[in-house]
Design a protein that fits this description.
It is a single chain. By secondary structure, this protein is mainly alpha-helical. The protein has a single domain, classed as ABC transporter involved in vitamin B12 uptake, BtuC, CATH 1.10.3470.
Length: about 325
C-alpha cells in the first residue's frame, strides 16, 4: 500500500492557497465594514450591532464548518435544514419543556448530536456504497429529517423550553462576545484541526483534488466520506440545538433558509464545489461577509426585495469566481 506522502503534500499546498486566497475575503469584509460605517455612523459601528452580527453568524458558521468538510471532497450536503429540524426537536423534547415529554438533562445534547451524525452517516453510506450522487441522497435525507421533526412535533401545543437560563445563554456575553459565537469558534477550531492535523482531513483534500489517485495511494475513500458526512450531520444537529435555544421552543422549520446561506458562505469563502481546497477558515470569512452585508443593507433602509436580489447576485458571482479555475473538475456525478 502506498504511503500518504502525496496526500500530505496536497494538503500543504491547499493550506497555502487557503491562506493566500483568504486575504481577498478579509479585504471584502473590511470594505463592507468601512462602507456601512460611513453610511450609518450612528448605528452600524457599535458594540450592540457587532453583537447582533456575530450572534446571527454563529449558526451558519457551525453548519458551514461541517458542510465545507464534505465539499472539500467534491461532494455536497443538502440535508442541512432537515437535520437541524430533527435534532432541534429531539433536543427540546428531551429537555425540560412545557409538554413535560422528558428531561434527561445535559444528555439531551449528545442525543441530538447523535441523531444528526446518524443521518449524516446514512447520507454518506448510501452515496458511497450505492454510488448515488450526493446531492440526490442528501436532498432525500433533508426530507427524512423534516419528517422526523414533524412526527416529533405531533399535533400538540408548541413545546417551549422551561429553563429561562438556557434560553438566554446564547445571547449572553460574559467574555465580550456572544456565547453562541464563542461556541461557533470552538467548532471552527475543531474543523481546522481536523482538516490540518489529521489523516482524515488531509485525505479530504486529496479526494477532492483527484479521487482516483487518492484511492491508488491507499486512502479508504468510502470510509472517510461516510465519516465526513457524519461530521457534517453533527454540525447541523448542533446548529439545530442553537436555533431551538434562540427560539426558546421546538420547531420543525428551525433550519429554514440555512442551506442557501451556508452554500453561499462556502463558495464566497473560496471553497470551490469541485473540492480540493478551501476549508473551515475560509468558510468563516464567507459567513461573516453575508450577515455583515445583510445587516448593513437593513440599517441603510434597503428594500427587502432588493436585499434578496443583492444576495443572489453575490452568490452567482462568487460561484463563478470560485469555480472558474476548476470548472473542468465540476461534476454532478458526485
Amino acid at each position: 500500500m502506498a504511503s500518504m506522502t502525496g496526500t500530505g503534500g496536497t494538503a500543504t499546498r491547499s493550506a497555502a492557497l487557503t491562506w493566500r486566497g483568504g486575504l481577498a475575503e478579509v479585504a471584502i469584509l473590511l470594505a463592507l465594514i468601512v462602507i456601512f460605517s460611513l453610511l450609518n455612523p450612528a448605528s452600524f459601528p457599535t458594540l450592540t450591532n457587532l453583537d447582533t452580527i456575530l450572534n446571527n453568524a454563529a449558526i451558519p458558521i457551525v453548519v458551514g464548518v461541517g458542510a465545507s468538510a464534505v465539499v472539500l471532497t467534491g461532494r455536497i450536503d443538502l440535508s442541512v435544514e432537515g437535520v437541524m429540524g430533527a435534532a432541534g426537536m429531539a433536543f427540546v423534547l428531551l429537555s425540560a419543556n412545557s409538554r413535560e415529554t422528558a428531561d434527561i438533562g445535559w444528555l439531551a445534547w449528545p442525543a441530538a448530536l447523535a441523531l444528526g451524525a446518524g443521518l449524516g452517516a446514512l447520507t454518506g453510506a448510501i452515496h458511497a456504497l450505492a454510488k448515488v450522487p450526493s446531492f440526490i441522497v442528501s436532498l432525500g435525507i433533508w426530507y427524512v429529517g423534516l419528517g422526523i421533526a414533524a412526527l416529533l412535533f405531533g399535533y400538540e401545543m408548541i413545546p417551549f423550553l422551561s429553563s429561562e437560563a438556557i434560553v438566554a445563554w446564547p445571547t449572553q456575553s460574559p467574555l465580550g462576545l456572544p456565547n453562541s459565537f464563542l461556541l461557533a469558534l470552538v467548532v471552527v477550531a475543531l474543523g481546522w484541526f481536523l482538516e490540518s492535523n489529521t489523516r482524515l482531513g488531509r485525505a479530504a483534500y486529496a479526494i477532492g483534488n483527484n479521487e482516483a489517485v487518492a484511492r491508488m495511494t491507499g486512502i479508504p475513500v468510502t470510509r472517510f466520506v461516510i465519516i465526513l458526512f457524519a461530521f457534517a450531520g453533527a454540525c447541523s444537529a448542533l446548529a439545530g440545538i442553537m436555533g431551538s435555544l434562540a427560539l426558546g421552543a421546538g420547531a420543525a422549520n428551525v433550519g429554514v433558509g440555512m442551506l442557501f446561506l451556508t452554500l453561499a458562505a462556502i463558495v464566497i469563502g473560496g471553497t470551490p464545489l469541485g473540492g480540493g481546497r478551501g476549508g473551515a477558515l475560509r468558510t468563516v470569512m464567507g459567513v461573516l461577509i453575508l450577515p455583515t452585508l445583510y445587516n448593513g443593507l437593513i440599517l441603510a433602509g434597503v428594500d427587502p426585495q432588493v436585499q434578496s436580489g443583492v444576495s443572489g447576485l453575490v452568490l452567482v458571482v462568487a460561484v463563478i469566481a470560485a469555480g472558474w479555475s476548476q470548472r473542468a473538475k465540476l461534476r454532478v456525478s458526485k
